[in-house]
Amino acid sequence: MSSLVAQDFDRWWNTSGPWVEEPNVRRSGTSGVQRVVHDGSIVYVKRQTGHTFRSLRYPFGRPTVMREGAALDRLQALGVKAPQPIFYGARKVSGTWQGLLVTRNLEGFTDLDSWFADDAQADLSPEDHLTLLNNLAVLLARLHRGRQQHGCMRSKHIFINADAAKQDVRFDLALLDLEKSRPRNSVMRAARHDVTQLRRHSYWSDAQWSFFLEQYQKALGRGVAFA
To answer: Does pTM top 0.70 for this prediction?
Structure first.
């Protein structure tokens, strides 16, 4: 780690703010997220200690924020909306990994589960629902055409810009929680994993799901068989 990067790491590591996700113990380490005001804007700082994943490339472990930061960079390149990374890095202190990921706030966005649970959405028309599903289909197809897998595809990890939706029903969507995201060697592998997982955790009707699949495969540019 260069001296400049080390200085950035120290600066972000020593920031503080209210906990969005209090430190929890997973993967034999801890991981938590704080909301921090930086230069007048809200950012989210994820700090990890000993919180690692293992792979063929990193058999001895690597902080999961490094995989998440790389995935966020990849989504930016693919044109898939997600939190913009400001900084991510890792270092070892006394033999223990420390990982850090800093992202910009997605202004006006809320998770899809909370948005649907809001009584204000009770009068959403069937056509509005289909518009939302179509936009989600296009978003995921763009991700998968880039051979990138989300890895934990659930509605609570899909965020919607509620203000934009109230104005013109654009349903601007974004993806969050990319900790398990990774590139795959084919479009089909990325698609089958995420879409199958989404269906398992979704609450859509059969008709809505069929519509989503039709729009998704159209946007993907190929047919995919899902179990």
So the answer is: yes
Q: Which CATH architecture has domain 109-220?
A: Orthogonal Bundle (1.10)
Q: Please check whether residue 82 is in contact with residue 65, taking contact to mean a CB–CB distance below 8 angstroms.
A: no
Please give the pLDDT value at position 117. 82
3-state secondary structure of 134: helix
In the predicted structure, residue 103 carries a pLDDT above the cut 70: yes
Spatial neighbors of 52 by CB under 8 A, at least 6 apart, are 27, 28, 29, 61, 62, 63, 64, 97, 99
**Beta-strand pair 158-161/148-149:** unpaired
Dist CA 108 CA 103 (whole Å): 15
Query: Does residue 121 sit in helix, strand or coil?
Result: helix
Other CB atoms within a 10 A radius of the CB of residue 10 amount to 11
Asked if 2 contacts 11 with a C-beta cutoff of 8 angstroms, the reply is: no
In angstroms, the CA 43 to CA 32 distance is 14
Protein fold of 3-104: Phosphorylase Kinase; domain 1 (3.30.200)
